[in-house]
Design brief:
Ubiquitin-like (UB roll); 11 helices; alpha+beta; flat
């Protein structure tokens, strides 16, 4: 009997792998002749053009990067990165599509598995403030270590918001998380298992529940429910898996080129 074959890639992995090759070629052409800096990745040093982001530098150096590459625009939080600088012994965190490389930088791309999310429906809760500690009981265990604030790439005062959640001050917490990209670094470093990013999302849902929704959103929801976009949706799903992969690849390449 034949043994198991190589693991199959899903559509997104295949699209990303193919586009990395084309994107790297464009990087070589765009940055030809520019001064280079030395960057350490996985114990090996690579000369890459200055001005590249961490993700671009990895692709330029020929390092495969499938997991941890997302929107490339600083919005999805997939490309969490840790790095050290030669003149600063402290570790730093950021998004790989936003942090630019510097001479002597040591880089580790650190994609994070999202924490388990409790299941709840905000609209069905009698009192979100009272339900908070039932859904997120670990919130009470915050030790004020401030590690969550230190690693946040968006400079959100995370520890402060956790304390505000303990006081059920959702109105203060919700706007603080407007810039959150759900990268999950805060949940990884928490020694007591709190996921502050999910608490921020809970606060935003609780505040939004008490306010009228934007009329544009209500109008669009009515259009979706009436079937106005049914034809476009069917067209999006039409064709073979290869056709859909090609459309994703073209869209991804267009976004990467911008």
């Amino acid at each position: 009997m034949m043994g198991p074959g190589p693991p199959r890639r899903n559509v997104r992995q295949t699209v990303n792998a193919r586009n990395e090759m084309g994107y790297a070629a464009r990087l070589f052409a765009a940055y030809a002749g520019r001064p280079t800096v030395q960057v350490e990745v996985g114990g090996a040093w690579h000369a890459v053009p200055e001005g590249l982001t961490v993700l671009q530098a990895l692709w330029y150096a020929g390092i495969p990067t499938i997991k941890g590459a997302g929107c490339l625009g600083g919005a999805c939080g997939a490309c969490t990165t840790t790095y050290r600088l030669p003149d600063d012994p402290a570790g730093h965190t950021g998004l790989g599509c936003q942090v630019t490389v510097r001479e002597g930088m040591s880089v580790t791309l650190y994609p994070i598995e999202p924490p388990d999310k409790p299941r709840y429906r905000m609209a069905e809760l009698d009192d979100p403030a009272e339900a908070l500690f039932t859904i997120y009981p670990e919130t009470r265990r915050c030790t004020l270590c401030d590690a969550c604030t230190a690693v946040c790439p968006q400079d959100i005062p995370v520890r402060q918001t956790v304390r505000q959640m303990m006081n059920k001050d959702f109105e203060a917490v919700a706007p603080a998380f407007d810039e959150c990209v759900m990268c999950g670094l805060c949940s990884v470093v928490c020694e007591v298992g709190i996921a502050p990013n999910l608490l921020g999302l809970y606060a935003r849902k609780a505040v939004a529940r008490e306010r009228p929704g934007p009329p544009e959103l209500a109008r669009r929801m009515e259009e979706v429910e009436s079937g106005r976009y049914a034809a476009e949706w069917e067209a999006l799903l039409a064709g073979t898996e290869a056709d859909r992969a090609a459309r994703c690849r073209d869209a991804w390449a267009g976004a990467a080129a911008r």
